[in-house]
Specification:
- α19 runs parallel beside α21 and α20 packs antiparallel against α21.
- With about 550 residues, the protein is of the alpha/beta class.
- The chain starts with a helix and ends in an 8-residue tail after the last helix.
- It is about 50% helix and about 15% strand.
- The chain has a five-stranded parallel beta sheet, sandwiched between helices. A four-stranded antiparallel beta sheet has the order 1-2-4-3.
- It is built from 21 helices and 15 strands.
- It binds one RNA strand of 77 nucleotides through α8, β10, α13, β15 and α18.
Length: about 550
RNA sequence: GCGCCUGUAGCUCAGGUGGAUAGAGCAACGGACUUCUAAUCCGUAGGUCGCAGGUUCGAAUCCUGCCAGGCGCGCCA
């Protein structure tokens, strides 16, 4: 994996270390060298600016340092064709074509595993995402969070972490009563009562439908019953049906959770008070004005937070503390929370809570996903939860499909707002990035199909004959292999930064190189050896597209 | 008022632990289908990286201030 890059990085570290062992940390592993792919082909396959970084410590010019590094360089694998010192002190590497061929062979020998790595070393990591309140259907913003969390979980699993996906159900608190009352009113309304809908209740159309379902099940039985007597029934009916709908929607979106965690279970288990006691034992809890407070300012929060109100009822935050304590008690090394960016004011207190519970601040990673602006043909689509006119995830899925929705959600950095245009997502044309990638995959599959029809027997090279790829000599071919070799590195970057958007960008770049190559070169020709070599390269491109799309949860069709 | 995020080509956005001439898609303009899928490709044009200072041999990237947009700032969830 990332074979050439790794070899080169190791060689460089070995060459840099003798210059100043003390500064470099004493071992080749501790030497940080950054290899980049230059934007200009004349600057080689890889370049490094490591000589610049050492100028201060070594008190010599970058070019002198670069020269010394080159003196120390031992190319035991014979992967370097040429190396040069360029400009003010860059070191440019030109790789042997045979080394690229070897990298390609390695990829083809284990296609399914290509990209997989052991960054996580089996550490347990939990990704909690969506966690929308069961008071209404998922909207498009939840879709972005769902795609981000799901794909991040896929990536982390591919990188050697043991991943659990979890959904936290906020099935406690005032909002549940509000939901139950809202359904009660809609039910009364359905039975012909004149209802003045009170402020602050859920007025979405989905509650009318729910009232219908309720009526089908219970008839007119509760027409005369006072609200207080039947509220739990209405609340339970509404939340369970809405949660079922959420599960269906997520299923349709290709997202599956390992665990659904109920907030109520914390209340039943007295976990909230136990958590507060645990924090009190550390001296982080005090009483004031008849309430109990968490001293979150001890960990950088801007003010302390109430955990038990003066009326004796715990806050939502207290439950969340208990929830996170529970997560860590279940043995996760790292916990990732994916939240809508409108909750950012909550981050500091949560991180403070984690520390008060005896964990490191870094054990909880909070990812804020910015909001989605829904557009249709460039014009904003109105979304208002209050009036119940929001666009649901389901509607978007029905209109544009899972593939386009997932891909588009992942083409932006999480902390950047996203314009989601339904017309673009729907269009089966070149302004839709998902089709660009899918088309390349279908095209590749079609090449192999035609090869079969023509009776050209492609055999995936098994590595026994390294010379089988000698015919791949074009710069475009070597550039494609170089990018294929980068794929594991892309996953590493995603896993480290917890940002999945590098994958769509990588795919676009890879596919763009392939489309261009396809338009200028013929893969199937009379030349048998050349055809075999080019098919092997095409095979590898297809494999990487397939693997990457699998991580994104987007289909890679064989025909379009 | 305070805090977080954002500001890069006409539009939508990558790049952000400082490094060579700042990238891509869309839109615009001009080309390429008797050939393995033209849902593709090739070319042209398009930039004071919000503004102003600072640090540095070197800043889109780091620091400070300002401007603009988004979102928060409950003993709600």
């Amino acid at each position: 994996m990332t074979w050439i890059r790794h070899r080169l990085t190791e060689m460089l570290a070995d060459a840099v270390l003798p210059l100043s062992p003390a500064v470099m940390g004493g071992s080749p592993e501790a030497v940080a060298v950054d290899l980049e792919i230059p934007s200009l082909a004349q600057h080689g396959d890889f370049a490094t600016n490591v000589a610049f970084a050492l100028t201060r410590q070594l008190r010599r010019s970058p070019r002198e340092i670069a020269a010394q590094i080159l003196n120390n360089l031992t190319d035991s694998n014979q992967i370097i064709h040429r190396v040069e010192i360029a400009g003010p002190g860059f070191i440019n590497f030109f790789i042997q074509p045979t080394a690229w061929h070897e990298a390609l062979l390695r990829l083809l020998q284990n296609p399914v595993a290509y990209g997989r790595q052991d960054l996580g070393k089996g550490r347990r990591i939990q990704v909690e995402f969506v966690s929308a309140n069961p008071t209404g259907p998922l909207h498009i913003g939840h879709g972005r969070g769902a795609a981000t969390g799901d794909v991040l979980a896929n990536i982390l699993a591919a990188c050697g972490f043991q991943v659990t996906r979890e959904y936290y159900i906020n099935d406690a608190g005032n909002q549940m009563d509000t939901l139950g009352r809202s359904l009660y009113y809609r039910y009364q309304e359905l039975l012909g009562e004149t209802i003045v809908f009170p402020e602050g209740h859920y007025q979405g159309e989905y509650l009318r439908e729910l009232a219908q379902e309720f009526h089908e099940q219970y008839g007119n039985r509760y027409r005369q019953t006072p609200l207080e007597e039947v509220l739990p029934l209405f609340t339970g009916f509404a939340s369970s049906h809405i949660l079922d709908g959420i599960k269906d929607d997520l299923n349709a979106f290709g997202v599956q959770f390992d665990h659904w965690f109920s907030e109520q279970s914390l209340h039943h288990a007295d976990a909230i008070h136990q958590t507060i006691e645990a924090m009190a034992a550390g001296g982080f809890v005090y009483d004031r004005e008849a309430a109990r407070w968490f001293r979150s300012t001890a960990f950088g929060d801007e003010k302390d937070r109430v955990v038990i109100r003066s009326n004796g009822v715990s806050t939502y935050f207290a439950a969340d503390l208990a929830y996170h304590r529970d997560k860590f008690q279940r043995g996760f090394d790292t916990v990732i929370d994916i939240w809508g960016a409108d909750h950012h004011g909550y981050v500091d207190r949560m991180l403070a809570g984690v520390q008060a519970l005896g964990r490191n601040r870094d054990d909880l990673r909070i990812i804020l996903v910015q909001l989605v602006n829904l557009l249709r043909g460039g014009k904003p689509v109105a979304m208002s939860t209050r009036a119940g006119e929001f666009v649901t995830l389901r509607e978007v899925l029905d209109e544009v499909g899972k593939d386009a929705a997932r891909f588009l959600f992942l083409t932006r950095r999480s902390d950047s707002q996203l314009d989601f245009d339904l017309e673009v997502a729907k269009s089966q044309s070149n302004d839709n990035p998902v089709f660009y990638v899918q088309y390349a995959h279908a095209r590749l599959c079609s090449i192999f199909e035609v090869a079969r029809e023509r009776g050209v027997p492609y055999l995936r090279p098994d590595g026994s004959d390294p010379s089988s790829l000698d015919r791949l000599t074009l710069p475009e071919e070597l550039a494609i292999i170089r990018l294929l070799d980068e794929y594991p590195q892309v996953l590493t970057k995603c896993a480290t930064t917890l940002e999945p958007h590098f994958i769509p960008y990588y795919l676009h770049e890879l596919v763009s190189l392939f489309h261009s190559y396809y338009n200028h070169n013929r893969i199937l020709s009379e030349d048998v050896a050349l055809t075999q070599a080019r098919l092997a390269m095409a095979d590898a491109v297809r494999i990487v597209i397939h693997n990457a799309m699998e991580l994104l949860g987007v289909s890679a069709p064989e025909k379009m």
